[in-house]
Design brief:
Blueprint: H1 3-10, H2 14-22, E1 29-30, E2 36-37, H3 41-54, H4 59-73, H5 84-124
Antiparallel strand pairs: 1-2
């Protein structure tokens, strides 16, 4: 598929896909006319790159880690796993992600408690529609 097709399927701009190629984390094939072409696995790779970037990894870390992640998927021996300094960076990133997860979970629980309290309060409060007038006393 061409770069525009990959961009459409992944929601990633062609310019960004070219940047991924430039930094060595995406590897297109080149057709005889020089155009970039991508196989179907490129879709998963771009999605994985986006997820790793969203997790806070740098493109440099991603370049080091991707071969190991792909080897793990295939249950093969990793070709060249990250150096110790890269592993330390990954450990720091993992700690950062875990802290963010904790914050998000606390926020989720607070919002859930607020919604429950609001729903309980509104369920106990009659609305105008609930106040149907009774017979008029003379």
């Amino acid at each position: 598929m061409k770069i525009g097709d990959l961009a459409a399927k992944t929601g990633v701009a062609p310019r960004l896909l070219r940047y991924y190629e430039e930094v060595g984390i995406l590897h297109p094939f080149r057709s005889s006319n020089g155009y970039r072409t991508y196989g179907e696995p490129a879709i998963d790779r771009v999605v994985q790159i986006r997820e790793l970037l969203e997790a806070g990894l740098t493109t440099e870390m991603i370049r080091e880690v991707l071969p190991c992640l792909e080897a793990a998927k295939e249950e093969a021996q990793p070709p060249a796993c990250p150096a110790t300094k890269d592993l330390d960076g990954l450990r720091r990133q993992l700690s950062s992600i875990e802290r963010r997860i904790d914050v998000l979970q606390r926020n989720r629980h607070a919002i859930q408690a607020y919604l429950r309290a609001w729903e309980d309060a509104t369920a106990a409060t009659p609305t105008a529609a609930d106040e149907v007038p009774g017979p008029i006393a003379e």
